[in-house]
C-alpha cells in the first residue's frame, strides 16, 4: 500500500492549524498539501519543529489489546471465482469454489469472511457439477458452514458458494491511508458523469477482499486463484496472473479467465474492468503492461517506462528474480488509496498518469518513486507476506526503502540522500504527536498501522542496518530472507535470523531498539580541540522513561588539508565523550558523516565550519545542513557569496536550498544577489529551481520584478507559472487581472491552487462564480486550499451574495470523503464568522457530527 496520508497529511494539517490557531482569521493557507498519490516535489527545507500549540505527547505504553496473527484452523489452498456485474444495482453476482484443508486439527466446520452478501447456496463438491447442499449460518460478516463430516489435515475438500456482493450496502469505514473499505467499487456505473469512464475495481488491503468474494481474509493465508470475469464486450479486464482464455458469449458479453498459478494472500487478489488502453512492454520475456484511459495511452510509457529497468535492477540487487508470471500496472479513477501492490497487477490512482506532456517533466520523479515502491512489494509483501498487521513494516519498510535504492541506482547518491532526508523529516513530523514501536502487537485498529512509522521510519531503520552490516551482507541477508520465506507468512524474528545467519553476529540489540521499542534518539553533539585530540561529546537527551538509551554505531569525520579522516565510534550511554586523534586543529568535525542515523541531531558548529562544510562536502545532505545552519547569517558577505556559488551546484536540490538561503536577503550584495536570482528564474533548466527563484524574488517587498514574472507566466513548467501567479498575488499590477483570466480554465493542480490564492487575496464579486465553478471540478488536493481561499474572497463581497458559496462550503465540510477537504471547507466557513455570527451554530454542528477524531482535534484549534 502506498503513501497513507498517512498520518503524514493529518499531522501536517494538524501542525499548520495548531501553529496558526491564535491568528486563524488572518492566516493564509499553504499553497499545497501532502497527498498519498501525488506527493509534493521534495524541495529541501528545514525540518518542522513542534509548534507551541501542540499538546504534550503521551509516551505511556499502549493500553490497546494485543493483536496476534490469526489462528490457522484451515489452509485456503485455491479460489476459483466466476463473476459478472449488475452495474445499475452495483452488485457482483458470483460463484466461488474454495479448496481448503484443516491446518492441523480435525475440523467439521468452515468459517469464512463474507461481508454484506446475499448467500444463495452452499455446496460440498465431490468431483461432479452437482454438489451436496450444506447447512450454514450467516450474520452478514461471517459465513459458518457445517461440513458433512470431520476432515483431517491430510484431506482437502471443496465448497461452492453462490452469492451476491452488495458493497454499497456495507457500513462505511476506512482510514487516512485507505479512505474506504468496501472492497469493490463501481465508478460512474450508469455513465451519467460525462468526464469519467465507467470502471470497476477492487481494493483488498486490509480485509476488503471478503467484501467481494468469500474467503479467509487474513494475511497469513495463501491461495492459488482463477477468476472468470464476464463483462460487456467493449471492456478490457485485468486480474492477477495470466489471461488464459477469452470467449465471446451468445448474449454479447465476453468471459475472460485469469489464472494465478503461484500462491498469494487473499488481500492481494484484484480485478479491474474498464475501457482501458493497454500499452505493452516486456522484461526477460515476461509481459509488462500499462492499463490507462485511452486519452493517456501516450503518457503511459513516459510514466511507467522505467518498469523493465526496475525489474532488472531489483532482481539483480536481491539475487531473486521477479517471481511472478507478469507485471501489469493499472490507473483507475477515484482510487481509495495512493496505490496497491496486488500480485502481478498493481493499482494506481488516475492522477499518476493524468498529465499532459507539458506537466510530465515536473512529476516524473514522484511517479517513479510510487512505481518503484509498489514493484518492490512484489517481493516484500507478495512473495513474502507479513503474518499479521502488527508486522506490517516487513512489507512497507522495504517498499519505502526501495525508493531510495532506485534513486541511488538511477540518479546517484545525491538523489538518494534527498530521499533519506525527506523520509526522515516525514517521520520526525509524525513523531511530534505519536511514537509507537515499528512492530506493534497492540493497536486499536489494524488501519492504524499505515503511518509514517511503518513506512518512513522503517525505511530509515533499514538504511541504518545496511550501513552497519555493509552492502554485501545486507543484500545477502535479504536474499536469504526471501528464499527461506517465499510463498509464506513471516514475522520480524525471521528477518533478524536471516541477518544473524548471514553476518554471524547476534543482532538482537539492533532489532530490539529499532523495531520493538518506540521513539528515536535526540542528540546534542559538541566538540572541542585539546592536545592533538578532538573531544566529541554526545548526549542523548530524549526522555528515556519509555524510550531507550540507544546503541549507535556512527562515523565522525575530521577534516584536515581538505581531506576527511573517518572515525567509527559506538555511542552507548546517555552522556559520552570520545577523543579522536588528529595532527592539528581540524577545519571541520562532522558527526554522522554518512548521514545514516534516524535521529534528531543538534550539532554545534561554528560559522567557519559550516562554510567549510558547504564548500568541501561531497554530498547533498551535508551541503543542505550547512546552508540551513548559515541561513540566519546570510547578510554576511562570505555567507551570501557561498550561497551564490551554490546556485551552480550540480544537484538541483542544493540549488533550491541555496535559493531559500537568500530569501529576504538584506546584505551588501543586494544587487548581485537579485541579478543571480533573476538569472536562475529565467535560465535554470529545472522547473522546480526556476519556480523557487521566483518565489524568493517575491520575498523582497516593494520591488519590481514584473518582467521576470511576465516571462514566467509563459514558462513551459506549470510550477513556474504557478510561482509567478503567487508572486503577483502579493503585488498585482494593472495587467495582472487580464493575465490571470487567461489561465482560469487550467486543469493543472499547482496552477489552480495558485489562482485560488490570487483570487482569495485580490478577487471581487466578479470572481465569485469562478470559485463556485472550479470547486466542482478541482481535485481534492486543490480543494483543501481553494475552499479556504473561497471563504477569504467572500469576506469582501456583500453578505446577500454569499448564499450559494456558503451552501457549497457547508456541503463539502459535512460530506466530502477526504478529511482534508472537509477541513478546508470548514476553514472557509470560519473565515466568515466575524461578519456572519449565524454561522457559529453551523460550525458547531459540523464539529459535533464529524466522526474523524483527528479532524475533530484540528477543529478544536480553530476558534
UniProtKB/TrEMBL annotation:
Aminopeptidase N-like N-terminal domain span: 80-268
Lineage: Bacteria, Pseudomonadati, Bacteroidota, Cytophagia, Cytophagales
Keywords: Aminopeptidase, Hydrolase, Metal-binding, Metalloprotease, Protease, Signal, Zinc
Alphabetized GO MF terms: alanyl aminopeptidase activity; metalloaminopeptidase activity; peptide binding; zinc ion binding
Domain Peptidase M1 membrane alanine aminopeptidase: 306-514
Catalytic activity: Release of an N-terminal amino acid, Xaa-|-Yaa- from a peptide, amide or arylamide. Xaa is preferably Ala, but may be most amino acids including Pro (slow action). When a terminal hydrophobic residue is followed by a prolyl residue, the two may be released as an intact Xaa-Pro dipeptide
Protein name: Aminopeptidase N
Organism whose genome encodes this protein: Hymenobacter luteus
Highest taxon in the source lineage: Bacteria
GO biological-process terms attached to the record: peptide catabolic process; proteolysis
EC numbers for this chain: 3.4.11.2
Pfam families given in the database record: Peptidase_M1, Peptidase_M1_N
GO cellular component labels: cytoplasm; extracellular space; membrane
Family as reported in the entry's similarity comment: Belongs to the peptidase M1 family.
Signal peptide (from-to): 1-23
Cofactor or coenzyme needed: Zn(2+)
Amino acid at each position: 500500500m502506498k503513501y497513507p496520508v498517512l498520518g503524514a497529511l493529518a499531522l501536517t494539517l494538524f501542525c499548520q492549524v495548531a501553529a496558526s490557531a491564535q491568528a486563524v482569521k488572518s492566516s493564509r493557507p499553504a499553497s499545497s498539501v501532502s497527498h498519498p498519490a501525488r506527493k509534493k516535489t521534495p524541495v529541501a527545507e528545514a525540518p518542522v519543529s513542534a509548534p507551541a500549540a501542540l499538546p504534550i505527547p503521551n509516551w505511556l505504553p499502549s493500553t490497546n489489546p494485543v493483536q496476534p496473527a490469526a489462528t490457522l484452523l484451515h489452509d485456503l489452498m485455491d479460489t476459483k471465482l466466476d463473476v459478472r456485474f449488475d452495474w445499475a444495482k452495483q452488485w457482483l453476482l458470483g460463484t466461488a469454489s474454495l479448496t481448503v484443508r484443516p491446518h492441523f486439527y480435525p475440523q467439521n466446520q468452515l468459517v469464512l469472511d463474507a461481508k454484506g452478501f446475499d448467500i444463495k447456496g452452499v455446496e460440498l463438491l465431490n468431483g461432479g457439477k452437482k454438489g451436496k447442499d450444506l447447512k450454514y449460518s450467516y450474520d452478514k460478516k461471517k459465513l459458518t458452514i457445517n461440513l458433512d463430516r470431520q476432515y483431517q489435515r491430510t484431506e482437502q475438500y471443496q465448497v461452492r458458494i453462490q452469492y451476491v456482493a452488495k458493497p454499497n450496502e456495507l457500513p462505511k469505514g476506512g482510514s487516512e491511508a485507505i479512505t474506504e473499505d468496501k472492497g469493490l467499487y463501481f465508478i460512474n456505473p450508469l455513465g451519467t458523469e460525462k468526464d469519467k469512464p465507467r470502471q470497476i475495481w477492487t481494493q483488498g488491503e486490509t480485509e476488503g477482499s471478503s467484501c467481494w468474494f468469500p474467503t479467509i481474509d487474513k494475511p497469513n493465508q495463501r491461495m492459488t486463484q482463477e477468476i472468470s470475469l464476464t463483462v460487456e464486450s467493449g471492456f478490457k479486464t485485468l486480474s492477477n496472473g495470466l489471461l488464459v482464455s477469452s470467449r465471446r458469449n451468445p448474449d454479447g458479453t465476453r468471459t475472460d479467465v485469469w489464472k494465478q498459478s503461484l500462491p498469494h494472500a487473499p488481500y492481494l487478489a484484484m480485478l479491474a474492468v474498464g475501457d482501458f488502453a493497454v500499452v505493452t512492454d516486456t522484461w526477460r520475456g515476461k509481459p509488462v503492461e500499462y492499463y490507462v484511459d485511452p486519452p493517456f495511452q501516450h503518457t503511459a510509457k513516459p510514466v511507467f517506462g522505467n518498469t523493465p529497468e526496475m525489474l532488472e535492477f531489483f532482481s539483480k540487487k536481491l539475487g531473486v528474480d521477479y517471481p511472478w508470471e507478469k507485471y501489469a500496472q493499472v490507473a483507475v479513477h477515484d482510487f481509495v488509496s495512493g496505490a496497491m501492490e496486488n500480485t502481478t497487477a498493481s493499482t494506481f490512482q488516475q492522477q499518476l498518469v493524468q498529465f499532459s506532456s507539458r506537466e510530465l517533466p515536473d512529476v516524473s520523479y514522484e511517479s517513479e518513486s510510487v512505481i518503484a515502491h509498489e514493484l518492490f512489494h512484489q517481493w516484500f509483501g507478495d512473495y513474502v507476506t507479513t503474518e499479521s498487521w502488527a508486522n506490517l513494516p516487513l512489507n512497507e519498510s522495504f517498499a519505502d526503502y526501495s525508493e531510495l535504492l532506485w534513486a541511488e541506482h538511477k540518479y546517484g547518491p545525491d538523489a538518494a540522500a534527498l530521499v533519506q532526508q525527506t523520509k526522515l523529516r516525514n517521520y520526525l513530523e509524525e513523531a511530534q504527536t505519536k511514537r509507537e514501536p515499528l512492530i506493534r502487537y497492540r493497536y486499536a485498529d489494524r488501519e492504524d498501522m499505515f503511518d509514517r512509522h511503518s513506512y518512513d521510519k522503517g525505511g530509515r531503520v533499514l538504511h541504518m542496518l545496511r550501513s552497519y552490516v555493509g552492502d554485501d551482507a545486507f543484500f545477502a541477508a535479504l536474499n536469504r530472507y526471501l528464499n527461506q520465506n517465499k510463498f509464506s507468512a513471516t514475522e520480524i524474528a525471521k528477518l533478524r535470523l536471516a541477518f544473524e545467519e548471514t553476518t554471524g553476529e547476534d543482532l538482537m540489540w539492533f532489532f530490539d531498539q529499532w523495531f520493538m521499542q518506540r521513539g528515536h534518539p535526540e542528540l546534542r553533539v559538541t566538540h572541542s580541540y585539546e592536545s592533538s585530540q578532538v573531544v566529541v561529546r554526545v548526549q542523548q537527551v530524549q526522555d528515556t522513561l519509555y524510550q531507550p538509551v540507544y546503541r549507535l554505531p556512527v562515523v565522525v569525520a575530521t577534516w584536515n588539508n581538505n581531506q576527511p579522516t573517518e572515525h567509527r565510534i559506538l555511542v552507548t550511554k546517555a552522556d559520552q565523550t570520545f577523543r579522536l586523534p588528529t595532527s592539528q586543529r581540524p577545519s571541520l568535525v562532522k558527526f554522522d558523516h554518512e548521514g545514516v542515523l534516524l535521529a534528531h541531531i543538534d550539532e554545534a558548529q561554528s560559522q567557519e565550519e559550516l562554510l567549510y562544510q558547504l564548500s568541501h562536502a561531497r554530498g547533498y545532505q551535508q551541503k543542505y545542513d550547512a546552508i540551513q545552519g548559515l541561513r540566519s547569517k546570510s547578510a554576511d558577505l562570505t555567507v551570501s557569496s557561498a550561497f551564490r556559488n551554490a546556485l551552480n551546484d550540480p544537484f538541483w536540490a542544493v540549488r533550491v536550498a541555496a535559493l531559500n538561503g537568500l530569501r529576504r536577503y538584506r546584505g551588501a550584495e543586494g544587487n548581485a544577489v537579485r541579478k543571480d536570482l533573476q538569472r536562475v528564474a529565467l535560465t535554470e533548466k529545472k522547473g522546480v529551481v526556476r519556480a523557487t527563484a521566483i518565489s524568493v524574488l517575491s520575498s523582497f517587498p516593494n520591488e519590481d520584478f514584473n518582467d521576470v514574472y511576465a516571462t514566467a507566466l509563459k514558462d513551459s513548467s506549470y510550477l513556474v507559472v504557478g510561482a509567478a501567479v503567487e508572486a503577483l498575488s502579493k503585488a498585482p499590477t494593472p495587467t495582472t487581472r487580464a493575465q490571470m483570466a487567461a489561465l482560469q480554465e487550467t486543469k493543472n493542480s499547482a496552477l489552480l491552487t495558485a489562482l485560488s490564492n490570487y483570487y482569495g487575496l485580490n478577487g471581487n464579486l466578479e470572481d465569485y462564480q469562478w470559485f463556485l465553478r472550479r470547486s466542482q471540478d478541482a481535485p481534492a488536493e486543490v480543494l483543501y486550499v481553494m475552499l479556504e481561499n473561497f471563504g477569504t474572497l467572500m469576506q469582501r463581497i456583500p453578505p446577500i451574495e454569499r448564499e450559494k458559496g456558503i451552501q457549497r462550503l457547508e456541503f463539502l465540510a459535512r460530506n466530502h470523503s477526504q478529511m482534508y477537504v472537509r477541513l478546508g471547507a470548514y476553514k472557509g466557513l470560519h473565515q466568515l464568522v466575524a461578519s456572519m455570527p449565524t454561522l457559529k451554530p453551523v460550525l458547531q454542528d459540523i464539529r459535533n457530527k464529524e466522526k474523524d477524531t483527528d479532524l475533530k482535534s484540528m477543529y478544536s484549534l480553530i476558534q
